[in-house]
Amino acid sequence: MNAPTSPTPEKVPLLTKLAFGSGDVGPAIATAIMSFFLLYFFTDVARLAPAAASVILLVTKTWDAVNDPLIGLLSDRINTRWGRRRPWLLFGAVPFGLAFFLLFQTPQLGDAGKFAYYLVVSLLLDTMFTVVNVPYTALTPELSRDYDERTSLNSYRFAFSIAAGLIAAVTHPIIVDAVAARSDVQTGYAVSALIWAVVCAAPFFFAFWGTYERHTPEEAESLPVLESLKRTVRNRAFRYAAGIYLLSWLVVQTVSTLIVYYLTYWLRRPEITPLVLLAVQGSALIWLFIWNVISRRVGKKGVYFIGMSAWVATSLALFAVQPDWPTWSVIALAALAGVGVAVAYLIPWAMLPDVIELDELETGRRREGAFYGLFVLLQKLGLALGLFAVGQVLSATGYITPPPGATAPITQPDSALLAIRLMMGPVAAVILLAGMVLVARFPITKASHEQTLRELEARRAASEPA
């Protein structure tokens, strides 16, 4: 799609917003299913020890430290007739879907063989996730320079993201249970993975067709790779935005991973899992649009403080919940948590384009790929740290892997149940409060960003031939 040629290019056409939003459907589905069910799949379906499963996740995300920034920098440098970012969506979509399908198979292997299989497939999926997701996220500043329009763009993106994650998270266990009733749970996971693999890959083709890239190849940055990474990390505003995102996403991933364990072993009500996930993700989807409106009045910092305060209160309440509490109270708390989840999705990503503009003013170069590569790394690092921490804590507190053929939740030791509640409640609350401290110190405001844009426009005007 060609970039619009109107005199106000900051405004993005609706079709482009929809196409851009669709590009996050695949990553959102994969992230939602892996966040809520991957560790549970490893421990209770594939029957890996929790400690072994968490090692697979840690090794995979260590590989991220290499491939995320690398793909980001490559997307800054590679120019084609389709642009710098969009070709990655076109050619990475199918391999991404295939790798996702392979992750949820259960090969008949010994413990060492299963460990090797899931490690290799996890590394493959992680690489393909990076190939499609880093260039996609780097499209944001290409579409508009307007402060509020970028918040709108990210609202569309995360509306698609949360809606897709909501549908996947709610229907995945329904599909698994329906197939398992006729076969077994392993086949249920395989069938569900096949369905979602196709759904993950398809939207990238619409995103490729419906978006555009504003910058010309001459604007691509040409710093050496290591120097570019050093400059990115040295950017003070980026460090704050990165810290905010890492802390927010760490809680999102940790709580997402624990929900199934919390409902299954603490409340003894695994059957309400789809309803609870619907409440969380459905609330987050609605609040995305509400926060988008509110942010125009109170700013991104104000939105973060309000939303995360609600989530902190919810975390403490979840620790207090007892198995005999009514189901409606659990669902109500899940919906309240969605208020904060929406902020965790929206605000850090809306901050990052402002950081990139400030960096352009300071360095004279646009380096979206480097910044977004590191940001996606933080997203997956949050996922890895959350899953690794949960796996290690469950192992250390005596979590029991269900025996083959178990059809009802077994009884877990009190130490494991307490660990699950602590990580869902007080631990999550403390991490969220740390993120609020960083938001209070974030150096970019709406006024300072507008001044940055004025200075950039003046610089561009001065460099144009008379």
Would you kindly provide a written description of the structure presented here, covering whatever features stand out?
This protein has helices spanning 14-22, 25-45, 50-77, 86-103, 111-137, 140-143, 147-182, 185-201, 203-210, 225-234, 236-266, 273-320, 327-363, 368-396, 414-424, 426-441, 446-463. The protein is built from 17 helices and no strands. The protein is globular and about 75 Å long. The chain has one domain (14-207, 225-457): MFS general substrate transporter like domains (Growth Hormone, Chain: A), CATH 1.20.1250. Helix 1 (14-22) packs across helix 7 (147-182), helix 5 (111-137) runs antiparallel to helix 14 and helix 7 (147-182) packs across helix 13 (327-363). The longest helix is centred in the middle third of the chain and has 48 residues, at 273-320. It is an all-alpha fold.
Q: Helical segment tally?
A: 17
| Residues in helix, % | over 70%
Spatial extent as radius of gyration: 22 Å
Q: Ranges with pLDDT <50 over ≥5 residues?
A: 3-9, 215-221
Largest sheet: none
Shape: globular
Top CATH class? Mainly Alpha
CATH topology: Growth Hormone, Chain: A
Helix-and-strand structural type = mainly alpha
Strands, total number: 0
Quaternary organisation: single chain
Could you tell me the strand content as a percent range? Answer: under 5%
Query: CATH-wise, what's the superfamily?
Result: MFS general substrate transporter like domains
Order of helices and strands: HHHHHHHHHHHHHHHHH
State mean pLDDT (0 to 100 scale): 85
Any guess at the CATH architecture?
A: Up-down Bundle
N/C terminus separation? 31 Å
